[in-house]
Specification:
Elements: E1 9-14, H1 20-31, E2 34-37, H2 38-51, H3 59-68, E3 71-76, E4 79-84, E5 87-88, H4 96-106, H5 109-125, E6 128-132, H6 135-139, E7 145-150, H7 153-166, H8 173-189, E8 202-205, H9 211-224, H10 226-231
Parallel strand pairs: 1-6, 1-7, 2-6, 7-8
Antiparallel strand pairs: 3-4, 4-5
């Protein structure tokens, strides 16, 4: 049985545009957990690298940037926020420029180790729903509550276009679809922490499901799992 002080982690991984961010937020809200957007942490370093003219291929410079950058995360009305060196970059990191570059930056092993340490520290402090690309395989590999979301590329492109439209960025949907497939290929083929489903994860294809349906399925699996039931025992 888990002790009262031990925190619980629900890991949600998946392809770009599979809906994991929206789903993770809803699951966290329903359970009273915090949603940890690990992808936002890699995006934040990517944004700084672009702004400062650091070569995205330079592993040493990217690692040094991640080590010297003060990164803070917090929650406002259940919304995940992130700041670097005192500057809130929650919205800026969603730009198409950052999206196009984040796979290259996040492939650097040294930088990943720095951010994984930060992610695990957050997991020790809070009950969290952690979403990203390697939550179940690397960062929180010991959790028993693992999910992997996927969807067909046409659906994912439509979802990404909606996000970009909300940011005021107009992009052709076919270009978005192409970029998504390229990013998935890069993430799946990288040497360090590649995008893949953990062997003990529960697979959900969200192509023909709405958010409420996916959330309900995950909540049912979580609430039925012994690690969650035992966590609730006083």
């Amino acid at each position: 049985m888990k002790s009262r002080g031990e925190k619980l982690v629900i890991a949600i991984d998946g392809e770009a545009g599979s809906g994991k961010s929206t789903v993770a937020k809803e699951v966290a809200q329903r359970l009273g957990f915090r949603k940890l957007d690990t992808g936002a942490m890699y995006r934040a370093i990517t944004l700084l690298a672009i702004e400062r003219g650091i070569a995205l291929s330079s592993a040493a410079e990217i690692e040094e940037l991640s080590r010297r950058t003060e990164m803070n995360v917090w929650w406002e009305d259940d919304d995940f926020r992130i700041a670097v060196d005192g500057r809130d970059v929650t919205t800026e990191i969603r730009s198409s420029a950052v999206t196009a570059a984040v796979s290259e930056v996040s492939a650097h092993e040294g930088m990943r180790k720095v951010l994984v340490d930060k992610q695990r520290e957050i997991g020790r402090r809070y009950d969290i729903v952690a979403e990203g690309r390697d939550m179940g395989t690397v960062v929180f590999r010991d959790t028993k509550l693992k999910f992997f979301l996927r969807a067909n590329d046409a659906v994912r492109a439509r979802r990404r276009k909606k996000d970009l439209d909300n940011l005021g960025e107009k992009m052709d949907i076919e270009k978005i679809r192409e970029d998504i497939l390229i990013r998935d290929e890069k993430d799946a083929s990288r040497r360090v922490a590649p995008l893949k489903m953990a062997e003990d994860a529960f697979l959900i294809d969200t192509s023909d499901m709405n958010v409420d349906e996916v959330v309900a399925l995950i909540l049912a699996k979580v609430r039925d799992h012994e690690s969650f039931r035992h966590r609730r025992v006083e």
